[in-house]
Amino acid sequence: MAEAHPVGFQWVMEAKRRGAKVFHVDPRFTRTSALADTYLPIRAGTDIALLGGVVRYILENELDFREYVLAYTNAATIVSDQFVDTEDGDGIFSGFKPETGTYDQTSWQYAGQENGGGAEDTEEARETAAGLRHESHGSPIPGVVRRDETLQHPNCVYQILKRHYARYTPEMVERVCGIPQEKFLELARAWTENSGRERTGVLIYSVGWTQHSVGVQYIRTGAIIQSLLGNIGRPGGGVLALRGHASIQGSTDIPTLFNLLPGYLPMPHHATHPTFDAWASSIRHPGQKGYWGHARAYCASLLKAYWGDKATPENDFCYGYMPRLTGDHGTYQQVLNMIDGKVKGYFLLGQNPAVGSAHGRAQRLGMANLDWLVVRDLFMIESATFWKNAPEVATGEIVPEQCRTEVFFLPAASHVEKEGTFTQTQRLLQWREKAVEPPGDCRSELWFFYHLGRKLREKLAGSDKPRDRALLDLAWDYPTEGPLAEPSAEAVLREINGFEVATGRPLGGFTEARDDGSTAMGCWIYSGVYADGVNQAARRKPRHEQNWVAGEWGWAWPANRRTLYNRASADREGRPWSERKKYVWWDEEKGEWTGYDVPDFEKTKPPSYRPAPGTSGPEGIAGDDAFVMQGDGKAWLYAPTGVVDGPMPTHYEPAESPLRNPLYRQQANPTRKVYPHPVNSVNPSPPEEHSQVFPYVFTVSRLTEHHTAGGMSRTVPPLAELQPEMFVEVSPELAAEAGLTHLGWAHLVSGRAVIEAKVLVTDRLTPLRVEDRIIHQVWLPYHFGFEGLVTGDSANDLFGITLDPNVLIQESKVGTCDVRPGRRPTGAALRELVEDYRRRAGITPERHAPVVTPADGEGAR
Amino acid sequence: MGIRTFIEGWPVYRQLTGTDPLGRGAAAQSERSAELTARTETADRVARSVCPYCAVGCGQRVYVQDGRVTQIEGDWDSPISRGRLCPKGAASKSLVTSPLRQTKVRYRRPYGTEWEDLDLDVALDMIADRVLAAREQTWEDVDDEGRPLNRTLGISSLGGATLDNEENYLIKKLFTAMGALQIENQARI
User: Fold this and answer.
1) Identity of the residue in B108, B148, B183 whose CB atom sits nearest the CB atom of A256
2) What mean pLDDT comes out for the span A564-593?
3) Is A492 helix (H, G, I), strand (E, B) or coil?
4) Which of B70, B77, B168 to mutate to test the interface with A (most CBs of A within 10 A)?
5) What mean pLDDT comes out for the span A605-615?
6) Burial class of A856 by CB neighbour count within 10 A (0 to 12, 13 to 18, 19+)
7) What is the pLDDT of residue A659?
8) Coil, helix or strand for A350?
9) Where residue A142 falls among pLDDT bands split at 50, 70, 90?
10) A57/A54 Cα distance (integer angstroms)
11) How many CA atoms are closer than 13 Å to the CA of B29, on its beta-carbon side?
12) A451 in helix, strand or coil?
C-alpha cells in the first residue's frame, strides 16, 4: 500500500499513531513492511491457507463476536444434509460435474431449499463471469430459512465452517505458506483482540488478490473473518480493496465489460433471457425478499435511456435490439479468436495489452492478425507499434511487410483537457473541471464515440435492414460545446442519473425509477448524483468544514453512503455497539435511523419490525436484517450460491506451482477457466512430471514511480529517471544457487517466453521453508516494454492464460519459471531456448494440464 | 549599496537578529528567491481535478496561465488526500505536458513499414466504414435454434480504467446498439 497507494497509506499511519497494530503480508518486503509492526513473508498463492488458519483460530477458541454473528450472519442457518465438504471429497465439494468442470449447486443450498430455485447454472455463470453482478447486490435466496440459534446443529453454517477449516492449524499454515507459527499466532491474536464491541479491525488488500485462479475466494475468506469478528458495516472495519486505476471502480459500475450493463445488470444471454420479462425476472427473483423487487424498473429505465421515445412498454422497451451472449466473450477469449482470424477490428482505448495483459506474445500475435486496429492513447505505446518494434519482429514471427493490420493511432485528451467523473476506490464520484483545451488532434473518448456514432448513423440513414434499427433508433442527441464540438459530459451524467421523461426533471434516486416508461435512467446505482439538477460529484466542501465522514465531498453510490451495510454498526435493537464505535443508530424519539453517514436501511423501519411470513421485496427485510441486499438479509459465512467454485474458500495451489497441495488430493481449483489453445500453455505442477524444469516461483507488482503498463510513466521524464530499468529481485541464497551477480543480468524462462532483467540481490526476498523444502521466489515489476523513455522486457510475457472462474480474471500474480545468469538470446535463438524448455517439460500444443487431479496420480497422497 | 544594506544582506546577521535563529527560513533566503513568485500565484485560473493514476482519488488543483498548464498541486481541501500527492501524482504536470505526447493522428497502412499522416476527420470516416464492413461480414441474426443474437463477434474493444464514467457510458451504449458485445476493460485484468 505504501508503494502503490502512498497517499492512501497516510491513513494507516494515522491509525498506527493512535495505537493500531499494522501487519503486512507479502511475498516481498516493501515500504509497507518497513512501516508495519510485523511483516509476514508468504508463499505467493497461499493466502486462503493463511486466512483459513485465522478462521480456525477464531472458531476453535470461540473468539467470534457472538452477538453480531447471531444477529447479522448466516452462522445459525441449517444447510442441506446433501452437502458434502471438501474434507470428505478430497478437495472437491458435492455436485461436481467432471465433464464440464463446474458444480451443480443443489446440495449447497440451505435445508429445505434444495429445489427452491436458488441454485444457479454454474457453467453459464462461469462463462459469463456472473460473479461480477454481485458487486451491487447479493445472491438470491428464498427468505425463510431454518436456524439453530445455539449454533450446535451439526449442519448449521457455524459447525460446517468449523469442520471445513479444522485442519488449517498453525502447523499447516507454516507448511503451506512458509509463515512461522509464532508469527501466524501473533497475527491471529492481534486481529481477534482488536475486534468486538469496543474495537474494530480492517483488512486491506490490493487487487493483485483478484489476479489468482482462486481470486474471488481470497476475498471471500477475508469477508468471512471480518463477519465473524463483527468488522463489517462499522467504522474502522471492512474489507477495503485498493483499486489501481483512477476510475476502475467506475469501469465496472458503468461497465465496458462484455457481460454487464450499467449498474451490474447482466448482458442478455441468448438462452436464459429470450424476452424482456425473462431478463428482468432473472434479476428480480419474484417472491424473494430484499431490494431485488425493483429491478424491472431499472431494466426498463436503462432501455428507455438507450432508445428514448422508441422504447415503449408495448415493444418491451426495444429489448429485441439487445445483442445476446452465448458464452465467454472475455478479453482472453477474444485474443485467441484474433489469432484464429475470427476478429476483424479492435479498439484500444487507453489500454496497452502488449505489455499489460498476461501472455504478451499472444496479445501481440493477435493484434498482428487483424484487419484494423484503432489505438487511442496519450503516447505511442507498444500496442500501437507492435508491427515494427515487438519482440516477435526480432524473432521473425511478425514481419512488417507481411502484417496486414491497418493501424489508426488517434491521440487522446488528458485528464485536464476534458471534464467528467472518476469513481475512486471507495465508490466516490469526483467531477473534474476542464483546465485547458486538448492540443492538436487530441480528443476525449466522449468526443470520439459521440462523433463515431453520429457518422455511423449518417451512413446508415435510410437503411431498411432490421439490424440497423438499434443504431438508427438510438437516443444520441447530446448537446455539443466549444470549438471542437465536444459533447457535454454533464448532459451524459444527467442521463446516467435518470430523469422523468415527461418533464425532464432529474430523478432524486433509484427509488424513483419506474417500469412503465415514464423514467429513463442510465445507471440505477448512480441515480442521485444529479439530484435536484445539481452535479453532486462536483461538491468540494473543504474537509475542515464538515464531519470526519465528509459526506459533502463528491458523491458516493449508492445514495451517497460512505460505508455499506452500516446498519450493522448498531446492535439488534438499533443501539451503537459502543460509544467509541458509534456510527449509525435508531433514534427512538424521531422514529428514524440517524448517524454520521447516510443509513443503509429504510429510514423509518424500526429495529423491531418483523415481516409477515412470505412477504417479498424490501418489505420482507426485518428490522434487524442489516445486510439488505442479501436474499436472507445476512452476511454470508457460507455462500449457498453466487460463487461458482464452492460455498467456502478452500486452499488450492496456483495453476503453476512447484509443490503438491498439502491439504487435498485436488491440486488446483477444479473449476478454473482454462484455454486449451496451441499458443497457450501451463507449466507442469505436481503430481504431473517435469515440474522441476521450472523450479522457481515468480510474482510481480508495481513500483511507486511507475503505473501499470508504463504508458503514463515510462513516457514522463521525472518518473522514467527515478526507475530507469527492468530488474528482478532475488534473495542472496537464490543468487548463490543460480549464479547471479548483483547488478548483472539474468534471464527468466517460462513455457511461454524468456525475458531478461538486471539483477538486484536483496534480502527483501526470503527463501521459504515449505514442506521440508526451500522455495525460492523472485519478484519483478510489470511496467516495462519496448517503447517510451525507458525500456525493458515485459514481465507479463512470462504468464500463460488461466482464469478465476467467477470473474474471468487471469492468474498473473504467480507462476513458475527458471532463472539463469546472463542475457537472453536474441533472434531465432530466443524461441529455440523456450522450445527447449517446453520439450524438457513435456509441453506440447496437445497437452493440457489435468483440471481434476487423478485419484492415483503420481505423488498423490 | 550602503554598508547597512550590506550587513543586513548577510544571512548570519539576519539569523542572529531576526525571527529565524536556526537559519532555515527567512534568514537564509537569497535576494533572488525573495524576488520569485510562485506560478500558482500568477495563474489565470485553477481547475479542480483528480489525479489520473491510482484509485485513491487524490484532489488536484490545475493551474493555468495563457491557456497552458503551468502547475498541478495537491488539493488541501480534500478529505481523501489532504493536499498530498505521490511521485506519480506530483509528476502529472510532466505527464500532460510531456514532449513525447502524440498530438497528430498517425496511420499505418496494411503491410506498411512506416507511419503516415492522416486527417482526423478522414480517419474517423475510415473507421466508421470499417466498423460497418466488419459488422456486415460477421453479423449473426439468430442462433441455430432461431433465438435472436443481434450481434457481431468481428469487433473487439479493450479500454483502460482512466476513462471517465460518462465516456464508458457512451462507449457501452454505442457498442450495444452496434451489436458489438466483445467490449472489455482493464477492470477484467
Assistant:
1) B183
2) 98
3) helix
4) B168
5) 92
6) exposed
7) 96
8) coil
9) low
10) 5
11) 12
12) helix
Closest CA to A669 of A403, A412, A851, A443: A851
A497-551: per-residue pLDDT in tens?
A: 999 999 999 999 999 999 999 999 999 999 999 999 999 999 999 999 999 999 9
Joined together, the cell numbers standing for residue A753 give 517466453
C-alpha cell at A185: 499466532
C-beta atoms of B184 and A489 within 8 A: no
Q: Is the dihedral of CA A50, A53, A55, A58 positive or negative?
A: negative
Residue found by looking up cell 503514463 in the block? A712
Chain B: residue whose CA lies nearest to A367: B156
Closest Cα partner for A125 from A142, A108, A139, A136? A139
Topology adopted by domain A331-467: Rossmann fold (3.40.50)
| Cβ-nearest to B184 among A245, A258, A384 | A258
Tell me the mean pLDDT in the region A349-370.
Answer: 98
- Quick one: average pLDDT of A175-200? 98
Cα B69 to Cα A27, A714, B47, B54, distances in angstroms: 41, 21, 10, 21
Q: Answer yes or no: are the C-beta atoms of A346 and B170 closer than 8 Å.
A: no
**Spatial distance between the Cα atoms of A645 and A92, rounded to a whole number of angstroms:** 9
CATH 2.40.40.20 in chain A, residue ranges = 673-841
- A245's grid cell: 486505476
The residues spanned by each domain of chain B are 3-35, 40-96, 106-188
Residue A140: per-residue pLDDT: 67
A540 burial level (CB within 10 Å; 0-12, 13-18, 19+): middle
Cα–Cα distance, B88 to B106 (Å, whole number): 28
* C-beta neighbour count of A504 within 10 angstroms: 10
A4, A428, A440: residue with CB nearest B104: A440
Q: How many CB pairs under 8 A join A and B?
A: 484
User: How many residues are there in chain B?
Assistant: 189
Cβ atoms < 10 Å from Cβ of A375: 27
The pLDDT value given to residue A320: 97
Q: What angle do CA A352, A356, A359 make, to 5 degrees?
A: 115
Q: Taking the mean position of all CA atoms in its chain, how far away is CA A343?
A: 26
Interchain CB distance below 8 Å, B104 and A411: yes
| Cα distance between residue A714 and residue A787, in whole Å | 8
Give CATH 3.40.50.740 domain extents, chain A: 331-467
Where does the pLDDT of residue A848 fall: very low under 50, low under 70, confident under 90, or very high at 90 and above?
A: confident
* Cα(A498)–Cα(A507) distance, integer angstroms: 6
Query: Which one of A133, A349, A459, A713 would you mutate to disrupt binding with B, by most B Cβ within 10 Å of its Cβ?
Result: A349
Whether the ω angle into residue A558 lies within 30 degrees of 0, i.e. cis, is: yes
Residue A120 identity (one-letter amino acid)? E
Write out chain A residues lying below 8 Å of B149, CB-based: 270, 323-324, 326
- Residues in Cβ contact with A45 at an 8 Å cutoff, skipping those fewer than 6 apart: A212, A653, A654, A657, A697, A813, A814
Q: Are A738 and A821 in contact (CB under 8 A)?
A: yes
User: How many CA within 13 A on the CB side of residue A757?
Assistant: 26
Q: Do B110 and A267 lie within an 8 Å CB cutoff?
A: no
Residues of B in contact with A451 (CB under 8 A): 124
Closest to A220 in 3D by CA, of A52, A46, A27, A73: A52
ipTM confidence: 0.97
Q: Where are the beta strands (DSSP E) in A473-556?
A: 480-481, 486-487, 499-500, 519-520, 555-556
- Residues of chain A neighbouring B91 (CB-CB closer than 8 A): 713, 716, 718-719
CATH of region A673-841: 2.40.40.20
pLDDT of residue B28: 84
Question: Are residues B183 and A451, on separate chains, in Cβ contact within 8 Å?
Answer: no
Query: What's the CATH fold of domain B40-96?
Result: N-terminal domain of TfIIb (2.20.25)
pLDDT at A143: 64
